[in-house]
Amino acid sequence: MKVGDMVKAKSSNTYGAFIGMRTFSNRRGGEPYTCAEVMWFDRNAPNGDRISTIQTNLLEVVDESR
Question: What confidence category does residue 65 fall into, taking pLDDT thresholds of 50, 70 and 90?
Fold first, then answer.
């Protein structure tokens, strides 16, 4: 996945633009984790923003040439 790629959530017909990766530290001393940030075209994140985080394995890149 590259910045700017169109992506789709595997579980729905929700599309967006891949913004980048974000790493979060674990406050309890565990390993940090990294997830994708996506700007959704047709919905807002639960906090009202257009950009939200999602597990990378829950996304697929859309082949725009089809």
Answer: low
User: Is residue 66 scored above 70 in pLDDT?
Assistant: no
Paired with 37 in beta bridges are 20, 53
Percent of the chain predicted with pLDDT > 70: 95
Residue 18 lies in a domain: yes
The CATH number of whichever domain residue 50 belongs to comes to 2.40.10
Neighbouring C-alpha atoms within 13 Å toward the C-beta of 1: 24
Structure tokens at 62: 């859309």
Domain of residue 34 covers 6-60
CB 41 within 8 A of CB 30: no
Name the pTM for this structure.
0.81
Residue 24 lies in a domain: yes
